[in-house]
Amino acid sequence: MRDIIVIPGDGIGPEVTRQAVETLDALGLGLTFVELGHINAATYLSTGTAMLEADFARIRDSGLVLFGAIGDPRVAATDYARSVLLRLRLGLDLFINKRPARLWHHRLSPLRDGSPRDIDCVILRENTEGLYTGVGGSVHEGTASEVAIDAEVSTAMGVGRILEHAFAIARRGVCMVDKSNAVRSGGRLWQRCWADARAAHPDVPAAHLYVDVAAMKLVSDPEQFDVIVTNNSYGDILSDISAEVAGGLGLAASANVNPVTRSGLFEPVHGTAPDIAGQGIANPLAAILSGAMLAEWLGHTSAAEAVRKAVSVVVAAGQCTADIGGTLTTEQAGAALRAHLLSAGGHDE
After folding, report:
1. Do domains 1-93+261-349 and 105-251 have the same CATH topology?
2. CATH number of 105-251
3. 3-state class (DSSP) for residue 245
4. Pick from 8, 108, 192, 238: CA 20 to 30 A from residue 41's CA?
């Protein structure tokens, strides 16, 4: 069994990651963890480098990362976050960013229809191409003549493999989202690969939406979606929308994975939340659910489902943090979930 590298990071990252590790330990899966606690903003500010080559080599050898959050208001430049999180995604070729959105309790939905909603979808975001590759530049910076260009990169390999994964995991259907009516070159590539993928999977219901329409439909009728697959920037935005209609970022988990190498980085979507860091009130459920995705990735399917069932129970009972209607601290919320896991008999691994 490979060691799991734990990178708590900044802000509330260490607080919520601790709860995720304790929950995975409580499942008794025999997992071992190695914490690289020095990969954070403090190290970057003092040395100019947050992640050494030796750190990356150790992470690459493991191929499994439980991640907290990265970012600090003291660091204005984007180089810090890119040098850690984006380097891991690109360096490990984690081309799938998987962000499930499930409404754990109907009271959490911000939609005006107060009846129970069956929201249970996943956003698949191409994770190594698009606008976030850093292709581009600027001239005449700081002047009235400044020109800045960021290029969106799409390749047939990159688009084809994310579409193939979307069809592979679909339960009810796949919706591909692009803006091919306005973004011509990349749009043509996505549309061609989409046609090929649909032809290869004729029995899977498939639909296409432009990104502006998809954003609208995620708010007005999120229950229609099963798998949404799209590019890097659109997926980033749409997954925040889906997280919000399903109860907020405090419950939003994610996985960055490569099914070929079986490498993966698992992290909550919420970021560092510096305004509440150190107060002990951060919601640990997104990190715990990310840990469940890690367990499932390693083949512990029943253990992952046990965690999800426990989340449903504690949320329904109000045994959670204030952001989703409870009164518990971060540690108390994690402990309440683990107590339910134990009372329910753990899992049938």
Report:
1. yes
2. 3.40.718.10
3. helix
4. 238
CATH topology of domain 1-93+261-349: Isopropylmalate Dehydrogenase (3.40.718)
Beta pairing partners, 65: 5, 265
Give the three-class secondary structure for 120: strand
Structure tokens at 180: 């091919």
| pLDDT value of residue 115 | 67
Q: What average pLDDT score do residues 12-41 get?
A: 97
For residue 37, which of 16, 10, 19, 76 has the smallest C-alpha distance? 10
Classify residue 52 by its DSSP letter: -
Give me the residue label for tokens 């229809």.
113
Q: What residue ranges do the domains of the chain occupy?
A: 1-93+261-349, 105-251
- Only one residue has tokens 């954070």, namely 40
pTM of the model: 0.93
Q: Residues 196-234: pLDDT tens digits? A: 999 999 999 999 999 999 999 999 999 999 999 999 999
Q: Which residues are catalytic?
A: 132, 179, 212, 236, 240
